[in-house]
Design a protein that fits this description.
There is one protein chain. This protein is of the alpha/beta class. It has 20 helices and 14 strands. Strands 6-5-4-10-11 form a 5-stranded parallel β-sheet, with helices on both faces. It has a 3-stranded antiparallel β-sheet with strand order 1-3-2. The longest helix has 25 residues.
Length: 566
Amino acid sequence: MDYTIIKVKQQIKEAVQKALGQEIDQKHIEIGVPPEKDMGDLAIPCFYFAKLLRLSPNRIAEELKNKIRPVGFIESANNAGPYLNIILNKKVLAQKVLNEISKKGEKFGSLKSDKEKIMIEYSNPNTHKEFHIGHSRNAILGASLVNVYKFAGKKVIPVNYIGDIGSHVAKCLWALEKFHKDEPLPENKGKYLGGIYGEAVRRIDENTELKKETDEVQQKLESGDKYWMALWKKTKAWSMDELKEIYKLLNAKFDKIFFESEVEKPGKKIVAELMERGIAEKSQGAVVINLEKYNLRTLLLLKSDGSSLYSTKELALAQLKFDKYKIDKSIVIVDNRQGFYFQQFFKTLEIMGFDKKMEHIPYEFVTLKDGAMSSRSGNIVPFEDFFEKVVELAKAETQKRHQDWNGEKISDVSQKIALSAIKFNMIKTNNSNIIVFDVEEALSFDGFTGPYLQYTISRINSILKKESPKGEIDFAKLENLLEKELILKASNFPEIIAQCQKENQPSILAKYLFELAKLFSNYYQNIPILKSEQETKKARLFLISNIRQVLINGISLLGIDVLEEM
């Protein structure tokens, strides 16, 4: 990364190495932040040096303090116990960082492109089921990671893998044909199918004999029965129409959509080859691969009646991805219930001799107050219903704030606020943590929320509308410690992008943006901007215009719209 913050840290490392008086691998020179602001801007622990010099880390920190001289970004040094604290030159830091942000604009924070070609598979819903708010976590997480990976310089192919065949489809079509054949169709036919699937599951739970009928439907579908295939194609289109509308709303984009139906037959062919090679074997009529020696139990590859499974189809999907798209790595975003399955699946590919980079990114559930959601049990909140509720709440708040706005503007802004609330609430939580969605908390303009970030940007917009920075900037005027803190925080944005991509955690970016917005809010409340003397005002306007740019770059990666006013 060719950014100011990297140059700052590199200069500090070189100064420390020179002060130590001996060659040292600079990767061992850690640079962090002191626990208290008045200690300094950056801190270096001296524990590693103690091993080399056979001195106490406290003594080393004190000696380094006396040897570090002002140069470039470094103004001075002090020590606190075993830590060497560095104070940065305000003017140099401000000039370099703010000019850099201003020059790079919407590209500030982006990393140099490399040759790695990565396919990110996300969303992965089923047709013939309702898309609920639990599904939206995957779609929102995946879309944000695609944005982050691209911004981090990766060549990304975003794809979706949709379950359009299997027992759930058979159950839905069976119930549609048996109980709803002559019903008039509603406008949202995809949602209608989801309700029928839930009904089918309940009927079968109440009378297990009915499962034989759904099994027959599934076998007819797999054998290519003309009647059932025609019904399947028609109803699949209903589901896809609904999904396209949801993806448009969430701004989830895909270069390619794979369907389970297109990899079923190739998957069965691979299973047959594994049988011939002695890798897979028959067990009670089914086909399995024994992974006991890897402590991964046994993976089922084909049912005893010859029906396919997820594993059957995904064997073919993995080969299709790498053979056709010539990718270097495949990332799959699927909830953590499938964690063990993916261990089995990846080991199976390895045994087959399929030596490719594949990674599973797991995530936790979105829950209701009365427990987890399931399309089988009917205990779900359809995403569309949920979204409408959040929009209505956002609209009521917007109308209270802006009684002079027309209905179209209120609707547009309310929808963007609602999407911001939903997306940020799904992203701000670490992938491994459960989300209990609180709508009122997510919509708050004050707190760890998407609307708070939108509001911060609109607040900066309102200042810059009154006056914008023009002419040469005197960076020496940015001498307040709050200004220095803001500038240093903004400079960290490229490193946050790199960390976010490396750890597959958009929550890192969400937390950073919230902290930056809070710093601005503190600055805004305590430091006069428009009422400053002319040169100071110009410098401060230039500062906040660049803070706005970093916030815009960040929330755009999270899929959140910028609002000029709120």
